[in-house]
Amino acid sequence: MTARPMLFDSHAHVDGPEFDADRDEVLARARAAGVQRMIAIGAVGDTASAERSVALAERDPDVWATVATHPHDVAKMTPAWWEVHERLARHPRVVAIGETGLDYYYNHSPHEDQRAAFARFIEIAREVGKPVVCHIRDAHEEAREILVRHRAPELGCVIHCFTGTPDDARAYAALGCYVSFSGIVTYKTAQPLRDAVPLVPRDRVLIETDCPYLAPIPKRGKRNEPGFLVHTAEVVAACSGMSFEELAEQTARNTCAVFRLTPP
Ligand SMILES: [Zn+2]
Ligand SMILES: [Zn+2]
Prior knowledge:
It is a single chain. This protein is an alpha/beta fold. The protein has helices at 23-32, 48-59, 79-88, 111-128, 140-149, 166-175, 191-196, 229-240, 244-259, and strands at residues 7-12, 35-42, 63-67, 94-103, 132-137, 157-160, 178-181, 205-207. It has one domain: Alpha-Beta Barrel (TIM Barrel), CATH 3.20.20. It contains nine helices and eight strands. The protein has an eight-stranded parallel β-sheet. The two termini are 19 Å apart. Residues 99, 135, 160-161 line the site of one zinc ion. Residues 99, 135, 160-161 line the site of one zinc ion (ZN).
């Protein structure tokens, strides 16, 4: 019997309070489901999320961290927050800056603040020589302008939880970005997203849970966790004409490539 292929969750908010009661069990369940590795995104709320994600990555060799402040929260940023991010960005277990970007759907922070913070986080990524993880919602054209102006694709650039049109997927791929699909791709209404999957070159596709949010079918409505990545992987594999094993192997390799990790 061949070993089950390893899945790599490229975007998980495992530092959050949603997992305080059972974090070790959640990580054990992920491994049992074949989700061996994950990227802990330290970017929700203030800088505590970044600190917690780095601490998690320090004690678990299969977890790496990112640091930034989510576009929702950038209006609250103080000079002290920037200092924390600039310091943590250099930490050896921090593999990327993110999630940063533009969210014009919720508009929790003014567009101007979002644009300025996005550009500044890309510049931090350049200083430390690491890729960027981007959260873009209803702002794809403007986001691509900023990415191009700040030459983000040459740093390595992930468009996480992609929710754009097939044309957006094509445009990001043309820039050399990686495009990451979340559990949304399993939802009935998400046919345009499934149509976008084969438009992204195979060596640019990533998969993620974005847990605790956006649990895939058949877990929709529950708290999401890295182990549920299996369900998203099945759908993305079907859309790309790959077997589950090929998709798992390919996306794990892609995730290692963009975050500059040694493949398993
Ligand atoms: Zn996001
Ligand atoms: Zn996220």
